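Quick one, probably user error.
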């Protein structure tokens, strides 16, 4: 799972402008969050969060943590995230990080592998952004929230359709042959 910031035009309304302004990046964005299966399919996502929201806050308020918790309780499967996500109350997440003093050898190995595996979320995001280069253009502030949501939902569905039908995806070519349809039950849980 990883976050995506999509540029949006600056608003004339001070409250709206403040919500979409990301002080870290010094620009206005819409925040999105996407969780990818080993096949490259987007299994869970959250759209149109204000650009000022942190990735972990988007995942919590968008219901992604709840969806991943259901998968964890049902199958034991965990999501891999980067340091921008909370692990405090999330046993269903593996957080990529550097070695911390006091960890066991197993925990250190898991963290290192999680850091490597989290690269797959970056590949997934690159697949989405590469297929839809207009995501780099600023969204219109005059469009309604529902219009922006429909636009981003269509992109997600088109990405999944392309990944499912064509199958050319860096995630699926790297990880999915190992699982060989084991994850289909998990994918059905998100439908």
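Nope, works fine. Designed sequence:
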């Amino acid at each position: 799972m990883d976050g995506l910031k999509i540029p949006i035009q600056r608003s004339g309304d001070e409250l709206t402008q403040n919500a979409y302004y990301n002080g870290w990046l010094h620009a206005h964005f819409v925040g999105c969050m996407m969780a990818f299966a080993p096949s490259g399919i987007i299994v869970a996502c959250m759209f149109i969060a204000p650009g000022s929201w942190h990735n972990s806050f988007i995942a919590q308020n968008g219901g992604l943590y709840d969806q991943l918790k259901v998968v964890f309780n049902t199958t034991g499967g965990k999501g891999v995230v980067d340091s921008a996500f909370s692990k405090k109350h999330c046993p269903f997440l593996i957080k990529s990080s550097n070695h911390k003093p006091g960890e066991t050898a197993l925990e250190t190995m898991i963290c290192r592998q999680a850091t490597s595996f989290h690269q797959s979320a970056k590949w997934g995001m690159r697949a989405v952004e590469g297929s839809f280069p207009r995501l780099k253009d600023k969204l219109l502030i005059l469009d309604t929230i529902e219009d922006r949501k429909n636009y981003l939902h269509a992109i997600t569905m088109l990405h999944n359709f392309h990944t499912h039908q064509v199958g050319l995806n860096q995630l699926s070519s790297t990880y999915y042959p190992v699982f060989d349809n084991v994850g289909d039950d998990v994918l059905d849980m998100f439908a």
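The beta strands are 2-7, 21-22, 27-36, 42-50, 79-81, 93-95.
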